[in-house]
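Researcher: Last one for today. Full complex below.
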Amino acid sequence: MLIGKVVGSVVATRKDEKLEGRKLLVVQVHNHRNEPTEQYVVAADSVQAGIGDMVLYATGSSARQTHATENRPVDAVVMAVVDSWDLGGDNVYEKWSGR
Amino acid sequence: MLIGKVVGSVVATRKDEKLEGRKLLVVQVHNHRNEPTEQYVVAADSVQAGIGDMVLYATGSSARQTHATENRPVDAVVMAVVDSWDLGGDNVYEKWSGR
Amino acid sequence: MLIGKVVGSVVATRKDEKLEGRKLLVVQVHNHRNEPTEQYVVAADSVQAGIGDMVLYATGSSARQTHATENRPVDAVVMAVVDSWDLGGDNVYEKWSGR
Amino acid sequence: MLIGKVVGSVVATRKDEKLEGRKLLVVQVHNHRNEPTEQYVVAADSVQAGIGDMVLYATGSSARQTHATENRPVDAVVMAVVDSWDLGGDNVYEKWSGR
Amino acid sequence: MLIGKVVGSVVATRKDEKLEGRKLLVVQVHNHRNEPTEQYVVAADSVQAGIGDMVLYATGSSARQTHATENRPVDAVVMAVVDSWDLGGDNVYEKWSGR
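Model: Here's the assembly. Have a good evening.
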């Protein structure tokens, strides 16, 4: 999994029927030091994540292992909202710090 | 999933029998700010996308989760035509804007 | 899928038994403008492609969806010989043009 | 698989129910000469690895082949703690050397 | 698949039980002209490959299609020892040439 920030969402009316009702989030990938990268992914939402949330996303067939995505043609899913992470004992991100 | 623009199509007469009748689109990948990149993919079409459409495509085993691609040797599928997306509250792409 | 040119083949006597009789092609990846890249892949052949042919190959579990590759330990398959493709209305490659 | 060092962990309260009780490690990828790279991955833990451990991780559907990760939406798993490895006859890493 | 050279092996005592008895090889990826790259992978062995052997390896779910790797948490397998390959009619590598 990689960590990213939800920065937007995609609207698509004409789509495969299995995508009906799935929210599609634009996630900008951050590195382990919480610096934004140029990499992004569009991921289905399984945890009602919102704009600005730091999230974890899974890709490939693993992205179809949630109730929201089972058997659907999605190759990325947001399956957790990140509260915090640390590196070498230092807190890198803390959701409730207002950062 | 990633966002791309349909820029062409591929014709192949000699092919695996499971590819019969599948339209193969050349999709140029765009980044989340809607700038074209040098990356491209050839994807099977499941939503009758046309040249110039902005689309979402899925890769890997997830690309076989549409009726058009089930059990077929394709590792990428266009499964949605994008109407619009936004980043940080700003509209990045709007299909009907004539842009 | 990506487009590539068949530039060689690999011979291997000591191999997993499921690879017996599978032809292994060296494919050099081309970009969508038909320029060769530095990327290559070794792919099983399912369409009797030959040296010099422009082909489509699929990767991952999708590479096991042809009769030639089912349940075999191959992660790439050549599953179509390309006749032609176009970009923005212009013909980029035409098999029979002698190019 | 790739080799990496466990450098941190991620806390997430709001997550897919199948992630309950799974420890999520931040792993920094090392190259084969044991030099840290800029690449990282968040991986589920199946071997009770700790901070500072050199580990092997697997990705994709293979990451769901341990008891800790079966059918769960995780695309990376730490499935071994590395004791040592060698390159060209030279020991590159030795857990018990205090290095 | 990609071609690589077996340059080492990894020892791990604490590991998922399904990895017991699997030899884990360090493989340095070579390009199609047989030049070593900076890319490497740790792969399970299914053909008793040895240090110095040029090999083919498969990744992803395809890596679990050998007897040695079925249902195991490995995402790469060495499934062939390369005897030779050619490019554009020229022999690039020949195992028995002493090169």
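Chain B has a mean pLDDT of 95. Chain B touches chain A at residues 1-3, 31-32, 46-48, 56, 58-63, 65-66, 69, 77, 79-89, 92 (CB under 8 Å).
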